[in-house]
## 1
Amino acid sequence: MNFNQMLLQKQSIVNKRLNELLDISGIPEVLHNSIKYSVEAGGKRIRPILTISITEALDGNILDALDFGCAIELIHTYSLIHDDLPAMDNDDFRRGKPTNHKVFGEAIAILAGDALLNFAIEILSQKAINNNNLNYIKAINEIFKASGARGMIAGQTIDITSENRILSLDELYKMHSLKTGAIIEASCTVAAYISGREDRLEEIKQFSQHLGIAFQIVDDILDFVGDEKKLGKTVGKDLKSNKATFVTILGLDEAKMKAQEHTKKAIEIANGLDKTGFLSKLTEYLLVREN
Amino acid sequence: MNFNQMLLQKQSIVNKRLNELLDISGIPEVLHNSIKYSVEAGGKRIRPILTISITEALDGNILDALDFGCAIELIHTYSLIHDDLPAMDNDDFRRGKPTNHKVFGEAIAILAGDALLNFAIEILSQKAINNNNLNYIKAINEIFKASGARGMIAGQTIDITSENRILSLDELYKMHSLKTGAIIEASCTVAAYISGREDRLEEIKQFSQHLGIAFQIVDDILDFVGDEKKLGKTVGKDLKSNKATFVTILGLDEAKMKAQEHTKKAIEIANGLDKTGFLSKLTEYLLVREN
């Protein structure tokens, strides 16, 4: 199998498991539909694929990694639903489809986000009960530290409170390291806990930090030059809203160079982590992606 | 000490611990202020007091129970912030103060709610790591099943999607057993897990279900006849919005009788659970409260 086939296979495994996890009774129909709408809207499933790939490389339990990765994807999905709300970024489209509140209304969109965050902890605490493994609790703690008021939510707070004010490059790094970086880092580090390989934590952190920055710079470049159809969302939005991005601060060429630099550093570490080469190819793919 | 002094003492212990738990660095100032604003707005702290009182009665670890109770109070607070939002119940006042979004804006209010839910998991997973006790994970799982899409969030979904439609008495019971009952039940049942006394689970569930229903009926009665100043929120809101309540369906006298019946049943069980008498007095107090 070549890289693209492996990526598609992993995405399909993640999608299948997400469907299974959401296929439960006892949820009011409109709420259930709203939750499934956003989870099934797709996305690259980068976070769960990072979790399972690194766990595989460390000889950990892949099925457990899959559930941890899926829970992280649910947290990621909740954050997108809430970020898209009129009071926040006020986005009408996401992944080529109307945003959750456009279809289900704001109240249900808020509740669907809340429910996804809740659901992630339900899944993971059940996993920890089934395994009775202290490392799994450590992994859970990592995830929710990353998604909380000192992680992802701090990043989103800085983002929305700094509109109409130009962030410095350092502030921009900090904002993104919180808003998207922290949860990408957790997607990677939980693999070390699941596999009982805390000795690899530092290395994995370094990898994920370079990957996270490169990922965000590429996002900013795509917002500047990307193809609206391939992206599935409005481009040029950052520019119009006068938001600082890596492109507006560094210029397009310098931003591309920075993305390449961080990708290169991430790949060097990935080669040491994963002898199959999948992780480094994934890192390369995230640099050249078109959405 | 009489009951009122004991209640005040327990409330003060809970408030002190909530302050300690929230006194952390690394949260953006406006988000931190918004979180503290709603947590410090007060409330009776019934949920954590239930957790610590029942744990005390079962000879469990009170300090751990305190943190579990405080985490539940943070979940309760997040649910109030989100429920008050314009897209939901659109409330301007809560506990005599402007609601969170009135002070901090909708975006920060949404994020503060998200952060509180996250924070509850951070606290509890850290507790579980410190203790490495499977029962603590079971307690965590109970809490988030209660607050999730098949519990509290299901109740809120039924509530907001049934406005302008009159619920039957059975539907009203179901809605409240989810919206407020599930998390009250969890406040009580976690005490059994913390104390390693799962043999008392069934009894505690019975107690909490009667208490939860009585609590909700009294809420509806207070909305109908209560003193706005003592309640700290607008009264008569249910009537104006044409919402089904225990008073509109049963009438005031029948509603009072039902509240007394459930209180009586809860007290009978409380007497068996807690020989100090505090739990039964707390149950009685919730019937005659004015806010």
## 2
Amino acid sequence: ADVDAGKAKAAVCAACHGANGISVIPDYPNLAGQKVKYLQSAIKAYRDGERKNPIMSPMAAGLTDTDVENIAAYFASLPAGG
Amino acid sequence: ADVDAGKAKAAVCAACHGANGISVIPDYPNLAGQKVKYLQSAIKAYRDGERKNPIMSPMAAGLTDTDVENIAAYFASLPAGG
């Protein structure tokens, strides 16, 4: 996976999940240091409709599998706890 | 919330999510240091059917709101990254 490409693609995610992957909003999860495979499955769940959320579903809608891999690799690479 | 009661109730969770809240299985999320409100909403989503998962749904099925609060407080209290 390409962490830099993931970082670029994940720029929009920072608004809620924090620039360092520690969420700025208590209702939304921290992503920093999370498991890569879990992140991939969660993003795909929003993209493919298994999980429905008014914010995350549209966010994930246009992502390719490669985007998902890169974004997941990026957040997993961030130090847990910020 | 009662973190000790949460820890007791979460004993079964350690099998997948790790004794220190760092998952032993790459497909399952780390929970240590996660946001309390997010943890509550995720557990309730499994309990109330908004999220369907063959493992998590039965795990969450019998939990009271107090259980959910205590379990969420417990995992949130663990140091992120283990």
